Prior knowledge:
Elements: H1 9-19, E1 24-27, E2 32-34, H2 35-52, E3 59-62, H3 68-79, E4 83-86, H4 93-103, E5 107-108, H5 112-115
Parallel strand pairs: 3-4, 3-5
Antiparallel strand pairs: 1-2
Amino acid sequence: RVFAPAATVLERIAAQVRAAPGAIAVVDDRERLTRSDLDARAARLARRLARSVAGPDTLLGLPPELSCDLLVATLAILKAGAAFLPLVPDLPRPRLDEMVRDSGLRLLVTTTALAAAWPG
Length: 120
């Protein structure tokens, strides 16, 4: 399918939500989200992020756990106008510390289960 060159990722996703809101957007081993569910959850998280620290020129950490939550968080960060830095918890701690320090990371967006793996 050909998209208008000026369309952003978020504009393309919004068009897909409008076209078929009930269509399944993402599935993991715990849940299935329709396009409208995904959009609504991402919008809620985006508002929460924007109230705290997210916005233009803000970098947020995002552990890449394959799940519906990862897609929700990724879209929310983009909707809040921020950018994200994928942080793999399996990297050596000194490397993660260096990445956080060098990037000026403001916040780590994660799940309660994954937060335990992130000391400090």
